[in-house]
């Protein structure tokens, strides 16, 4: 975890305006990483849940991608 936090602190100095964590396991620490980074961090777990719920609650339950 210390290496991830140090890497996150480096992001603003490198000019990053946002970051993504492409690792499921590291998402256990996404809040800590976002705080250390000082930039917006995309939470892929939250994005997945939001997308799944939005598709689940569509007006047409038979409207499926590819059909």
From TrEMBL:
It holds the Pfam family Asp_Glu_race. InterPro entries: Asp/Glu/hydantoin_racemase, Asp/Glu_race. Keywords: Plasmid. This is Uncharacterized protein. It comes from Streptomyces nigrescens.
């Amino acid at each position: 975890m210390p290496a991830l936090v140090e890497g996150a602190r480096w992001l603003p100095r490198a000019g990053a305006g946002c970051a993504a964590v492409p690792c499921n396991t590291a998402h256990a620490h996404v809040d800590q990483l976002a705080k250390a980074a000082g930039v917006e961090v995309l939470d892929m777990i939250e994005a997945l849940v939001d997308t799944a719920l939005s598709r689940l609650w569509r007006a047409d339950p038979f409207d499926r991608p590819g059909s």
